[in-house]
Amino acid sequence: MSHVMLRAIVLALFVIAMCGWAKADDKPADAAVKFYGVADAAKKVVYVLDHSGSMLDTFDSLRQEAIRSVNALAPEQAFSVVMFSEAASVIFPKLQQATPEAKRDFAMKLAAYRAQGMNDDLLDPFERALEAAFKMEPEVIYFLTDGRFDPRLTDFMTKLNKDKKVRLHTLAFVNNDAAYKDQLKELAKKNGGSYKFISGQDALAPEVKFYGVSDTANKVVYVLDHGGSMLDTLDFLRQEAIRSVNALRPEQSFSVGMFSAGGVSVGYPEVQKITPEVKKDFAEKLQKFRAQGHGDDGVNTEQKAFEAAFKLQPEVIYFLTDGRFDQRVINVVTNDLNKNKKVRVNTLGFVSNDPTSEDQLKELAKKNGGVYKFVSEKELGK
Fold first, then answer.
1. Could you tell me which of 154, 173, 167 has the C-alpha nearest to residue 193?
2. Cα 129 to Cα 89, 142, 169, 275, distances in angstroms
3. Please, what's the b/e burial string for 82-114 (b: 16 or more CB within 10 A of its CB; e: otherwise)?
4. Average confidence (pLDDT) over 148-153
């Protein structure tokens, strides 16, 4: 076995260990899938991924994100992956249920792929890859490449998806060439999907994980409720927040905003680089917070907490609460604070299973590129 192959397998196993195998009750009710922050709701998904030679320096990052995305799927979801360079190859010829065994098999198969070959301005490998994906009848396709393709691919896709049953999300990877970015934007627009440019910083961004909700970011802010209704659960939230921050890497930075009816308190006025000293300081600061105040349906505290968080210019915000809030908060975040959609907002409903709060959190996440999760009492270990 070559050193390169061994390294890829070790990397795949590392990502598996870091992400863990997804459990059914870890998943939001609408079967979320997310790839480089592009979220959708689907039970059947296919990833179509470029592995040409121009991706030599970034392919390990793509491999990690693909494994992370698949690992986050629930057992009732199904997936496959098509790889292409000068030719197309299918990792699974049929959709696979997202079982631990299938996820492990995928990670090992993906470890065998290398960044090699050239496909700029070609048509055939792109057509074959997308055609293979459509034959599996998915609801969603993620199509990622770092180079231009023959313009005739757009017409080919229009015919292939004439009934518009498949949403096609396109991702431009690291290469900042305007021509192929425009091609990918057009493909997504004509096929009901969204387009995203993955910068070099995004491609190499490390993982952050909070109550099983995994994302990639260099800068993250946690916005956490500590209202009086959390008297019996705040200790568990405190433990998870400390665990999440302790798992961050030295190149990442973070801050935390705590809110209740008594107001908003920002742990750090600027995002902090991860050091042992900062982790210790954060744990000590967090111990001072108590569950107090009542603020359901209020607008001031949640809005102020978000305003403070957005001022820190994070890539990702985790927003956790156990109660409902004023609907205007969603409008302010979506249409004002995050109007350029540069920040992904992941939302978590905490223990209290209130339908109104759940609907609000789902809407907030959906409109701001994030995912929603309900954290049950069972997950607290109570």
1. 167
2. 7, 12, 15, 44
3. bbbbeebebbbeebbebeeebbbebbeebbebb
4. 92
**HSE (side-chain half, CA atoms, 13 Å) at 310:** 20
State the CB neighbour count (10 A cutoff) for residue 69: 21
Domain containing 114 — which CATH number? 3.40.50.410
Same domain? For 112 and 246 the reply is: no
Are residue 199 and residue 226 in the same domain, yes or no? Answer: no
0.90 exceeded by pTM = no
If you search the block for the tokens 């990502």, which residue do you land on? Answer: 15
Q: What is the 3-state secondary structure (H, E, C) of 314-373?
A: CCEEEEEECCCCCCHHHHHHHHHHCCCCCCEEEEEEECCCCHHHHHHHHHHHHHCCCCEE
The mean pLDDT value for 96-123 works out to: 90
Name the token pair of 252: 């990442």
Higher per-residue pLDDT: 263 or 138: 138
**Residue 206: closest CA among 158, 274, 258, 109:** 274
Q: For residues 48 and 151, state if they share a domain.
A: yes
- Give the Cβ contact number of residue 127 at 10 Å: 19
Q: What is the largest CA-CA distance in the chain?
A: 62
pLDDT band at 221 (very low <50, low <70, confident <90, very high): very high
Same domain, residue pair 340 and 215: yes
pLDDT of 8 strictly over 60: no
Task: Answer whether 272's CB lies under 8 Å from 253's CB.
Answer: yes
Q: Is the pLDDT of residue 97 over 90?
A: yes
CA distance 306 to 347: 12
Burial class (CB in 10 A: 0-12, 13-18, 19+), 201: exposed
Residues 229, 129: one domain? Answer: no
Give yes or no: residues 73 and 97 share one domain. yes
Q: Is there a single domain that holds both residue 33 and residue 74?
A: yes
Domain coverage including residue 188: 3-203
- Name the token pair of 16: 């598996």
- Residue 256 forms beta bridges with which residues? 222
Mean pLDDT of the chain: 87
Are residues 13 and 134 located together in one domain of the fold? yes
Q: Are 182 and 156 in contact (CB under 8 A)?
A: no
Q: Which two tokens stand for residue 169?
A: 């999300």
**The predicted structure's pLDDT at residue 353:** 84
Which SS3 state, helix, strand or coil, does residue 137 take? coil
